[in-house]
Each structure stands twice: as C-alpha cells, then as structure tokens.
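Students often ask why we bother encoding 3D structure as a string. The short answer is that it lets us treat folding as translation between two languages. Here is a chain of 131 residues written in the first language.
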Amino acid sequence: MQTVHPALPAFWYGVQEFANPFLTLGYSAVIVWLTRYRWAGPVALLAPAGRMTASNYIGQSVIMMLLYTGYGLALADCIPPAGVVLLAVLTYLAQLRISAWWLRRHHYGPIEWVLRAATYGSLTRAAWVRR
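And here it is in the second language, the structure alphabet:
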C-alpha cells in the first residue's frame, strides 16, 4: 500500500502513474540513441552474445546451477553477494568470447540452430557451418 505524503496533494500520484509510460519511452529512446550514435563501437562487442541469446541463456543457467545447487558445488550459501556478482560478470565475459569464437565458424548458436530446424522442419548442415 502506498503511503501519501501529507505535503503532496493526492492527485499528483495519479499524474505520476500517467507519466510513467512516457518516462519509460523516453529512457528507452535515450538508450537506443546512445547505443546507435555515441557508444556504437563498444556496443558492437556485445553483438555475438546477442545473436546467440538462447544458447547463452541456457549455458548461463547450467553454469549457475552447477555452481550454486546440490547438483554441482552447492556454493549458494558460501559466496558473498559481491562474489556472486563477480561470478556472473566473469561468466558473461566468457560467454562473449565463446560466442564470438563460435560465430566465426557457424551461422547460428547451437540452440538457435535447433530452434530453426524445428521451426522449418529441416536439418540442413549448410545453414549450420560457415564456409
């Protein structure tokens, strides 16, 4: 439940709720503008991971499951929050390098290829391997 500040008229909360979608669109537009015109070079380094989103998602889920649950090392209660963030960042950086390496040899990530094969109903090797 939202508490109302006594110095602020109640209708301002309605104005805020009305303005929120416009603020979201504004923030999104600024981010798109920055990534297209100001930070295009650094953002391009993230492109391989973006082209292999499903593979990276599954890979990161498996890695974190093996680190933190009883199926693997069971480190869930042993690592402080800063260590968890560090492991997540290191995992993502490793995935960036692996994605770039993979896409130099293949058109799609492994999960993306399976999804395409299931969607189109064909297992073509030509779409899988770069020549």
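Translate back mentally: The two ends are 60 Å apart (CA to CA). Keep this in mind for the problem set.
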